[in-house]
Structures are given as structure tokens and as C-alpha cells.
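We store chain and fold; example below:
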Amino acid sequence: MREDIFSLIRNDIVHLKIKPGAPLNEIRLAKELQVSRTPIREALRRLAAEGLVTVTPNVGARVSEINLRDFRELIEFRIILERGAAQLVAVNSTADDIRAMRQLHSKTQSQETEDLDRLTDLDSEFHFISRRAAHNQLLEKQMEVVQTRFTWLMRSYHYKPHFVMIKIPEIIEAMEQRDAETLERMLVEHVEHFVDRLREETMKKF
């Protein structure tokens, strides 16, 4: 139940159903979700640890504002994680992981779309498959948190992640060949492509 409450609130924030800066009233949320305040309070605490919620003593919780300058460290951390993940995927990925990636590629081909929600969902699925293919639970948990914040930013700035969809066949080939160098380059390029597009859109520097 508590995990469900956490996931529901996080999903509403990432999908912008609850806007940046919006207050998060424990009583109202508890009433809407038909639970006590305890799981709500715990979920908000976890979301604050992930950077999606800001809690101010004697004031309460609100959805964090998106400040691009705060993402400098997140981007650096994401690239470090992607480099490490690439090395592990090259060594640890299984036939099932490659099959899952192929199925995702088939889905992207049969469901071509410009819809922002659909594209970001496909991008999230790609990252779920790739981090799971590393077969390292600690890394997977860290990457999930970071990817959630990136997805939030993508949706906020209407970024459509075509890049990774186009590159999936090359990533599959690199997985099959256990080519860590190519995997690392492709995964890092995906992050850098997003950052470059974001800079173009906002005309701000990190």
C-alpha cells in the first residue's frame, strides 16, 4: 500500500498532473487516496529525498520548482551512472534482456508517434530495460531515481526523445557483441543530446 501511494504521487508529479510549486496538503491527499496521513507523510519524505518535493518546516510540502541550474550535478551523476551501466550491460546482459530490447524496438516501429506522453513512456521503458540488463540492484535503484527526474524535466520542456528510439538497433547489436565502448558512447550521447536540446530551448547554460 505505501509503495502504491508513493508511486501514485510521484507519477502525478512526473506527468505534471501536479504542477511544480503546487502545495501538497497531507490531509487533502489522504482524503483523495482514502488512506491515513502516515503513508502520505512517508511518501512525501521519500519524494523529497528524490528531489521532486520540497518540505519547509512549519509550512509544509510542495512540488519542487524546476531550476535548471540544479541539474548540473544531476547530469554529471547521470553520465557517471550510464558509463558504469554500459560496462555492466556488456558483461551481464542476457538473452532475455536483448529480447526485451528487440520487443521495444518492434513497438517503436509499429507505434510511430509524435505524442509527448507516448514517447516519454517509450523512453522510460528503454531505460528500465537497459538498467535492468546491468544486473546490479544498487545501480538500478540509483538510475531509477535519476531517470525519474529526467523524465519530469523532459515533460516540463516538451522534449520528445526520438534520439534513443532511432539508436535502439545499434544498442542491440552492441549488447550482442558485448561491446562496452559502443554501449557507453550511445548511452552518454543520449543524455548529451537531451542536454543540448534543452540548452537550445531555454538559452540557458548549466
